[in-house]
Amino acid sequence: MQFTNAYVTSPLCCPSRSSILTGRYIHNIPMRNNTLAGNCSSRAWQQGPERNTLATHLKNAGYTTFYAGKYLNQYGRHSVGGVRHVPPGWSEWQALVGNSVYYNYSLSNNGKLEHHGRDPDKDYLTDVITKKATDFLQRNENSSRPFFMFLAPPAPHQPFTPPARYRNLFNDITAPRTPSFNTSCNNTKHWLVRKAIYPIPEPVRNWIDESYRNRWRAMLAVDDLVAAVMDTLAATHKLDNTFVFFMSDNGYHLGLFNDITAPRTPSFNTSCNNV
Hints:
With 275 residues, the chain is an alpha/beta fold. It has a single domain, classed as 3-Layer(aba) Sandwich (Alkaline Phosphatase, subunit A), CATH 3.40.720.10. Helix content is 29%, strand content 10%. It has 7 helices and 5 strands. The chain has helices at 13-22, 43-47, 54-60, 125-139, 191-194, 202-235, 270-273, and strands spanning 64-70, 92-96, 105-109, 112-116, 147-152. The chain has a 5-stranded mixed sheet with strand order 4-3-2-1-5, sandwiched between helices. A hairpin with a 2-residue loop joins strand 3 and strand 4 (112-116). Helix 4 runs parallel beside helix 6. The radius of gyration is 19 Å and the shape is globular. Mean pLDDT is 90; it is low at 264-269. One of its GO terms (molecular function) is N-acetylglucosamine-6-sulfatase activity. Belongs to the sulfatase family.
Protein backbone atom coordinates (compact mmCIF):
# COMPACT_ATOMS: atom_id res chain seq x y z
CA MET A 1 0.00 0.00 0.00
CA GLN A 2 1.28 3.46 -0.90
CA PHE A 3 -0.06 6.80 0.26
CA THR A 4 0.57 8.98 -2.79
CA ASN A 5 -1.17 12.11 -1.53
CA ALA A 6 -0.25 12.16 2.16
CA TYR A 7 1.21 15.24 3.83
CA VAL A 8 2.29 16.39 7.28
CA THR A 9 2.80 19.91 8.60
CA SER A 10 6.51 19.47 9.38
CA PRO A 11 9.37 17.16 8.30
CA LEU A 12 10.61 17.00 11.91
CA CYS A 13 9.40 14.36 14.38
CA CYS A 14 8.55 16.43 17.45
CA PRO A 15 6.93 19.40 15.67
CA SER A 16 4.90 17.08 13.46
CA ARG A 17 3.73 15.03 16.45
CA SER A 18 2.80 18.13 18.41
CA SER A 19 0.72 19.25 15.43
CA ILE A 20 -1.09 15.89 15.31
CA LEU A 21 -1.78 16.01 19.06
CA THR A 22 -3.02 19.60 19.16
CA GLY A 23 -4.48 20.11 15.69
CA ARG A 24 -2.41 23.29 15.34
CA TYR A 25 0.31 24.42 12.95
CA ILE A 26 3.73 24.21 14.57
CA HIS A 27 4.36 27.97 14.49
CA ASN A 28 1.23 28.44 16.61
CA ILE A 29 2.32 25.98 19.30
CA PRO A 30 5.23 26.94 18.87
CA MET A 31 7.44 23.89 18.31
CA ARG A 32 10.74 24.53 16.53
CA ASN A 33 12.73 21.28 16.58
CA ASN A 34 13.43 18.02 18.44
CA THR A 35 15.22 19.59 21.43
CA LEU A 36 14.02 20.83 24.80
CA ALA A 37 15.14 24.31 23.76
CA GLY A 38 12.97 23.91 20.68
CA ASN A 39 9.98 23.20 22.97
CA CYS A 40 9.97 19.42 22.45
CA SER A 41 8.34 18.05 25.64
CA SER A 42 9.65 21.09 27.50
CA ARG A 43 8.14 22.69 30.58
CA ALA A 44 6.54 25.30 28.33
CA TRP A 45 4.96 22.51 26.26
CA GLN A 46 3.75 20.74 29.40
CA GLN A 47 2.29 23.90 30.91
CA GLY A 48 0.69 25.07 27.68
CA PRO A 49 -0.22 23.09 24.54
CA GLU A 50 -0.07 19.67 26.24
CA ARG A 51 -3.05 20.66 28.39
CA ASN A 52 -5.22 21.14 25.31
CA THR A 53 -4.85 18.09 23.07
CA LEU A 54 -6.88 15.43 21.35
CA ALA A 55 -6.62 13.36 24.53
CA THR A 56 -7.89 16.04 26.91
CA HIS A 57 -10.87 16.85 24.70
CA LEU A 58 -11.85 13.21 24.28
CA LYS A 59 -11.41 12.33 27.94
CA ASN A 60 -13.56 15.32 28.88
CA ALA A 61 -16.16 13.95 26.47
CA GLY A 62 -16.23 10.65 28.37
CA TYR A 63 -13.74 8.56 26.41
CA THR A 64 -11.28 6.11 27.91
CA THR A 65 -7.95 7.07 26.34
CA PHE A 66 -4.88 4.89 25.77
CA TYR A 67 -1.41 5.74 24.47
CA ALA A 68 1.43 3.34 23.63
CA GLY A 69 4.72 3.97 21.83
CA LYS A 70 6.84 6.96 20.91
CA TYR A 71 5.50 10.27 22.22
CA LEU A 72 7.92 13.17 21.80
CA ASN A 73 11.68 12.88 21.32
CA GLN A 74 12.59 14.45 24.66
CA TYR A 75 9.87 12.77 26.72
CA GLY A 76 11.12 11.26 29.99
CA ARG A 77 13.99 13.68 30.59
CA HIS A 78 14.64 14.08 34.32
CA SER A 79 14.79 17.87 33.98
CA VAL A 80 11.16 17.96 32.83
CA GLY A 81 9.60 15.42 35.16
CA GLY A 82 11.00 12.10 33.94
CA VAL A 83 8.71 9.11 33.48
CA ARG A 84 6.49 10.29 36.33
CA HIS A 85 5.12 12.97 34.05
CA VAL A 86 1.98 11.57 32.42
CA PRO A 87 0.42 14.10 30.04
CA PRO A 88 -3.14 15.11 30.92
CA GLY A 89 -5.96 13.38 29.12
CA TRP A 90 -4.58 9.84 29.04
CA SER A 91 -6.38 7.18 31.07
CA GLU A 92 -3.59 4.68 30.35
CA TRP A 93 -0.05 5.70 29.41
CA GLN A 94 2.66 3.42 27.94
CA ALA A 95 5.11 5.87 26.39
CA LEU A 96 8.65 5.38 25.11
CA VAL A 97 11.32 7.31 26.96
CA GLY A 98 13.27 9.34 24.41
CA ASN A 99 13.59 8.79 20.68
CA SER A 100 13.07 5.79 18.44
CA VAL A 101 14.69 2.49 19.41
CA TYR A 102 13.60 -1.14 19.23
CA TYR A 103 15.56 -2.90 21.99
CA ASN A 104 17.10 -1.80 25.30
CA TYR A 105 14.60 0.94 26.01
CA SER A 106 12.37 2.15 28.82
CA LEU A 107 8.68 2.96 28.94
CA SER A 108 6.65 5.10 31.27
CA ASN A 109 4.03 2.60 32.41
CA ASN A 110 1.45 4.99 33.84
CA GLY A 111 4.25 7.02 35.40
CA LYS A 112 6.47 4.12 36.51
CA LEU A 113 9.69 3.04 34.80
CA GLU A 114 9.45 -0.21 32.83
CA HIS A 115 12.68 -1.43 31.22
CA HIS A 116 12.97 -3.79 28.26
CA GLY A 117 16.10 -5.60 27.06
CA ARG A 118 17.08 -7.49 23.92
CA ASP A 119 14.93 -10.62 23.98
CA PRO A 120 13.47 -10.86 20.45
CA ASP A 121 10.48 -12.78 21.77
CA LYS A 122 9.58 -10.28 24.50
CA ASP A 123 11.19 -6.90 23.94
CA TYR A 124 10.85 -5.83 20.29
CA LEU A 125 9.05 -2.52 20.75
CA THR A 126 6.44 -2.86 18.01
CA ASP A 127 5.42 -6.23 19.43
CA VAL A 128 5.26 -4.81 22.97
CA ILE A 129 2.93 -2.07 21.73
CA THR A 130 0.81 -4.72 20.01
CA LYS A 131 0.49 -6.73 23.23
CA LYS A 132 -0.38 -3.69 25.33
CA ALA A 133 -2.97 -2.55 22.77
CA THR A 134 -4.75 -5.88 22.51
CA ASP A 135 -4.70 -6.26 26.31
CA PHE A 136 -6.36 -2.85 26.63
CA LEU A 137 -9.09 -3.80 24.15
CA GLN A 138 -9.76 -7.11 25.88
CA ARG A 139 -9.93 -5.50 29.32
CA ASN A 140 -12.45 -2.96 28.04
CA GLU A 141 -14.57 -5.38 26.04
CA ASN A 142 -17.63 -4.89 28.24
CA SER A 143 -17.16 -1.20 28.92
CA SER A 144 -19.99 1.09 27.87
CA ARG A 145 -17.61 4.03 27.49
CA PRO A 146 -16.17 4.90 24.07
CA PHE A 147 -12.41 4.64 23.74
CA PHE A 148 -9.60 6.41 21.92
CA MET A 149 -6.37 4.49 21.35
CA PHE A 150 -3.19 6.11 19.97
CA LEU A 151 -0.54 3.57 18.91
CA ALA A 152 2.85 4.98 17.89
CA PRO A 153 5.44 2.37 16.88
CA PRO A 154 8.71 4.04 15.84
CA ALA A 155 9.02 1.74 12.81
CA PRO A 156 10.36 2.33 10.27
CA HIS A 157 12.36 5.14 11.91
CA GLN A 158 16.15 4.89 12.07
CA PRO A 159 17.93 2.69 13.31
CA PHE A 160 15.68 0.54 11.06
CA THR A 161 15.92 -2.51 13.32
CA PRO A 162 13.73 -5.32 11.96
CA PRO A 163 12.21 -8.07 14.10
CA ALA A 164 14.21 -11.29 14.07
CA ARG A 165 11.41 -13.18 12.31
CA TYR A 166 11.60 -10.94 9.23
CA ARG A 167 15.27 -10.03 8.99
CA ASN A 168 16.01 -12.29 6.00
CA LEU A 169 13.21 -11.06 3.73
CA PHE A 170 13.40 -8.70 0.73
CA ASN A 171 17.07 -9.41 0.04
CA ASP A 172 16.72 -8.42 -3.63
CA ILE A 173 14.90 -5.14 -3.02
CA THR A 174 16.65 -1.79 -3.59
CA ALA A 175 15.62 1.76 -2.78
CA PRO A 176 13.72 3.49 -5.61
CA ARG A 177 15.94 5.28 -8.10
CA THR A 178 13.69 8.25 -8.72
CA PRO A 179 14.80 11.17 -10.95
CA SER A 180 16.01 13.00 -7.82
CA PHE A 181 18.09 10.06 -6.55
CA ASN A 182 21.87 10.71 -6.61
CA THR A 183 21.35 13.96 -8.51
CA SER A 184 23.72 16.87 -8.79
CA CYS A 185 22.31 19.88 -6.94
CA ASN A 186 22.82 23.15 -8.76
CA ASN A 187 22.65 26.69 -7.44
CA THR A 188 18.86 26.74 -7.66
CA LYS A 189 18.63 24.45 -4.63
CA HIS A 190 18.68 25.50 -0.99
CA TRP A 191 22.22 25.83 0.41
CA LEU A 192 21.68 22.93 2.82
CA VAL A 193 20.67 20.66 -0.07
CA ARG A 194 23.78 21.71 -2.01
CA LYS A 195 26.01 20.44 0.82
CA ALA A 196 25.11 16.81 0.05
CA ILE A 197 27.85 14.64 -1.51
CA TYR A 198 27.59 13.98 -5.24
CA PRO A 199 27.85 11.38 -6.51
CA ILE A 200 26.78 9.17 -3.60
CA PRO A 201 29.65 6.67 -3.03
CA GLU A 202 28.85 3.03 -3.78
CA PRO A 203 29.20 1.88 -0.12
CA VAL A 204 26.69 4.55 0.86
CA ARG A 205 24.31 3.49 -1.92
CA ASN A 206 24.57 -0.07 -0.61
CA TRP A 207 23.80 1.17 2.90
CA ILE A 208 20.76 3.05 1.57
CA ASP A 209 19.48 -0.14 -0.06
CA GLU A 210 19.96 -2.18 3.11
CA SER A 211 18.24 0.53 5.15
CA TYR A 212 15.34 0.44 2.71
CA ARG A 213 15.08 -3.33 3.09
CA ASN A 214 15.18 -3.05 6.87
CA ARG A 215 12.42 -0.47 6.79
CA TRP A 216 10.25 -2.92 4.85
CA ARG A 217 11.12 -5.68 7.33
CA ALA A 218 10.33 -3.43 10.28
CA MET A 219 7.02 -2.47 8.71
CA LEU A 220 5.93 -6.10 8.65
CA ALA A 221 5.78 -5.93 12.44
CA VAL A 222 3.55 -2.88 12.06
CA ASP A 223 1.38 -4.96 9.71
CA ASP A 224 1.20 -7.56 12.48
CA LEU A 225 0.19 -4.83 14.94
CA VAL A 226 -2.61 -3.60 12.68
CA ALA A 227 -3.85 -7.15 12.08
CA ALA A 228 -3.83 -7.96 15.81
CA VAL A 229 -5.72 -4.78 16.68
CA MET A 230 -8.31 -5.33 13.95
CA ASP A 231 -8.76 -8.98 14.96
CA THR A 232 -9.18 -7.99 18.61
CA LEU A 233 -11.69 -5.29 17.70
CA ALA A 234 -13.66 -7.93 15.83
CA ALA A 235 -13.40 -10.45 18.66
CA THR A 236 -14.62 -7.87 21.20
CA HIS A 237 -17.50 -6.81 18.90
CA LYS A 238 -16.20 -3.26 18.52
CA LEU A 239 -14.90 -3.27 14.95
CA ASP A 240 -18.15 -2.08 13.34
CA ASN A 241 -18.26 0.89 15.69
CA THR A 242 -14.62 1.98 15.50
CA PHE A 243 -12.88 4.47 13.23
CA VAL A 244 -9.26 3.58 12.34
CA PHE A 245 -6.78 6.22 11.12
CA PHE A 246 -3.31 5.30 9.80
CA MET A 247 -0.77 8.11 9.59
CA SER A 248 2.90 9.05 10.00
CA ASP A 249 4.76 12.07 11.32
CA ASN A 250 7.19 12.42 8.40
CA GLY A 251 9.13 10.55 5.72
CA TYR A 252 12.74 9.96 4.69
CA HIS A 253 14.79 10.94 1.66
CA LEU A 254 16.99 7.83 1.19
CA GLY A 255 19.09 9.44 -1.51
CA LEU A 256 16.64 12.01 -2.83
CA PHE A 257 18.71 15.03 -3.75
CA ASN A 258 21.62 13.04 -2.26
CA ASP A 259 20.25 13.29 1.27
CA ILE A 260 20.96 9.93 2.89
CA THR A 261 18.28 9.64 5.59
CA ALA A 262 17.44 12.92 7.28
CA PRO A 263 13.82 14.06 7.19
CA ARG A 264 14.67 17.68 7.85
CA THR A 265 16.36 19.23 4.81
CA PRO A 266 14.22 21.44 2.56
CA SER A 267 14.24 19.15 -0.46
CA PHE A 268 11.04 20.30 -2.10
CA ASN A 269 8.84 18.85 0.63
CA THR A 270 9.88 15.23 -0.01
CA SER A 271 10.08 14.47 3.70
CA CYS A 272 6.66 16.05 4.24
CA ASN A 273 4.92 13.86 1.68
CA ASN A 274 7.07 10.69 1.64
CA VAL A 275 5.07 9.31 4.54
